[in-house]
User: Fold this.
Amino acid sequence: MTLEELLEGVVLPIDKPRQWTSFQAVGKVRAVIRNHYGIKKFKIGHAGTLDPLATGLLLVCVGKATKRIDELQSGEKVYSGTMVLGATTPCFDLERPIDHYYPFAHITPQLISDTLPQFTGNIQQVPPMFSAVKINGQRAYRYARQGNTSDESVSAVDTPLPTPKEVHVAQFEITDFRPGDPDRQVTDAELEATASVPTELHHLYNNPLGVVPDHLPQLDFRIRCGKGTYIRSIARDLGLALDSGAFLASLRREQIGNYTISQAIAPDQVEQFLLQ
Assistant:
């Protein structure tokens, strides 16, 4: 690919690794392009943030393709992953340890099936505090992580909450359900281990804190949804609807509009792609 072709506009479908931020993935592509073509300034961005502990399709737009970011972000998305029932975490995924356990013996495949229609169509959703949504002009995750940052601009007083918004879920399918063991008691040592949070988090994503106790039920899912849908919030709300708790254990984005994960390349394959 010539430099002229690149700057005319290219969309790179990247398979983002787990523990990478979307910003890191864009940075990797930027560095490869700078090194390969010997240029310093050019337009680059991504069409839709993917959580650090999630994997899958991230569209990185280069050159004039950055003008398509809004269009690409509006495309329908497909996710697959695993939710854990009977417990919650403060961030609704594994970035933080479990903070509460809940009864789950009453949860059956039939109850889950009867509950799912609440989560399709146009639904109201409160974004997670650990997210890039803005509150009073500031990213929500800055408020959420204020106890683990030295940034004095983040106040710990009167932390606001994200505003509920309407999102569209076209399909919510359970592909597998593992019931867990409701008779197993959580030990005091397990409670202490899952409830503790280190005082220093020198890198939040290279050291994921959460674990999934093997006695908790898990369900695998596939969700097709519109722009702005937080799958972690769906996990939280499903737990509430089941009179229990839930959090997201894994997430993979498989599709954005007409782009699919089968077209994606790993970050270390970007230079090879440019040589084509």
In short: The radius of gyration is 20 Å. The helical segments are 3-8, 22-37, 69-73, 109-115, 140-144, 188-195, 231-241, 270-274. Residues 131-136, 138-157, 199-207 have pLDDT under 50 and may be disordered. The longest helix spans residues 22-37.
